[in-house]
Amino acid sequence: MESILYAENLTRVFSRKGQQELVAVDHVSFELFPGECLGIIGESGSGKSTIAGLVTRLIDPTEGRIVLEGRDITTLRGKELRDIYKTIQLVFQTPAESFDPRCSLGDGIGESLVNSGMRRSEAGREVERLLDECGLDKSFAGKYPFEVSGGQCQRAAIARALAIKPKVLVCDEATSSLDVTIQKDIMELLMELRKKKGNDLSILFICHDIALVQQFCDRVLVMCHGRVAEEGIPDDIVRNPGNEYTKRLIESIL
Amino acid sequence: MKTSGDVGKDKSLGTRTGSGDVGKDKNLGTQTGSGDVGKDKSQGTRTDSGDAKADNYGANVISDLREKGGSVHGAIHINNDNNSTPMVRVQRIKKSSVRTRLIIFGVLAVMLLLCSVFCEYLTPYDPYLQDLGNAKAAPSPEHLFGTDRYGRDMLSRVIVGSRTSIYSTLLLVAIITAFGTIIGVTCGFTGKKPDAVLMRISDIFLAFPGLVFALAVAGVLGGGLQNAIIALAAISWPKYARIARSQTLSQKEMPYIRAARLAGCSNLKIIFKHILPNIIGPILVTSMLDIGTMMMELAGLSFLGLGAKPPTAEWGSMMSDTRSLLSTTPWVTLSPGLAIFVSVMIFNLLGDTIRDYADPRSRGGRK
Fold it and tell me: What is the ipTM of this complex?
């Protein structure tokens, strides 16, 4: 089976005058297959979020190649770059801040639809359907991000990411800022979506909680200091960690 | 326990907008002295000095508050009463009151503008007609603001002066706001070379003492109102560029800008739809406050002979010309001063209201 998202030797170096260079992501390669959920775990500073930025081209890679649906997107610019967001979408770590405080949730969710040429009234109906799909009442379309709770906001953010019907969904610590019960709700929503969309939706699930990854992901990459420390089936890795860092990570949650 | 000040704080707006818990909060306020976090701290320090009783009481108060489901802070209240989901209510100005203010000050500002547009038709006398026999007359039913030393009707002169003063000030502020914002947003958004070049240019303008530079510009270009406006615009735009740039920089890295990118927005669309609405508040308020300053500076240049030329009625120059008469015939100096005061006030209040209205947080979207 051909991979839908393929990253090869992805590297990002942050450098600033007078400061030491920081290699956030160091020659990371991975493949994401259609319908699969690939987890990326690691402690903070291990480069997980940078990977989310790199594969969505919000951050430019220093080195390496990103292939989306067989197309090299590493150096795209302008209109061509904007077009990749019809295939790949990102759910942010901080739900409240990922919505423009001056726009209603409905406008935020429907923005990608309007930008891709859908009429406003039609987009409005689609937004209501998406809200419903993500377990929110349609009245949320008219609310502002500061009026809803974190969990509701994250549901809206997932609705926004799914609006354009992407094939790849990158969840960058999508549940980290939420409390445990809401976290469970969001995970259930994601699982339901996976079941419904089957091979049409692949998820890159970035997380620091190995228990969540074990439940949810088909494969997992363990990141450590910008490198891939280990890769495999989550259950195998939990049972039989092959790496010092993975061992510590598992011990820390048990 | 020091009560008075804290209780007052506790009863502030945030509590009042609440539906059911006004009484409860007041009650708590009087019982405990306050629900203020700062207060709790002060009780903590008392324990250190050995007053165990006070500490005990403080602890009871806090647990009391917790049991009643109230928040310990004055501004934020957790409301479990009338909704099934717990919601945090943030202190906010009511939508209706903001709208009322907007209408009031908007209407007043529009009246000022209409007054300056149709000033010729509103004057009871010819503002330039001299009547030396009736010079320096005190305010009377015929001449509400009195007459100046040439016997010209002050009310008419003030009304006619509104054209020069308000018109040119608004034009000036509009120019510097638009120009400064464009430069600032461009700098903040693109960064790198254009940013460095444009910001150094603005530094150069900022390095000169304002009015002196305006004098030099007006001196080179020659006198006249138009040149005074150009001179003041040249020294005032960097302030707006600075504000717009720093605001843009802080908004640019927000996740919602990245989200807009993910929604397929082009750079221009991001600037106009997401960055500008989020940074325009402070810029608008600055420009509204600047209306007063600019009115005064234009008047200053007029006084120095580089702005409006006499006998053109202009509030600032009218004040400057007659300042020697302040002790003998104060109405001649004070009436244009009153006009400046009133119009500056209206525009300042309008600016504040526009800022409140533009921010959905204070518009109170939740029903």
Answer: 0.86
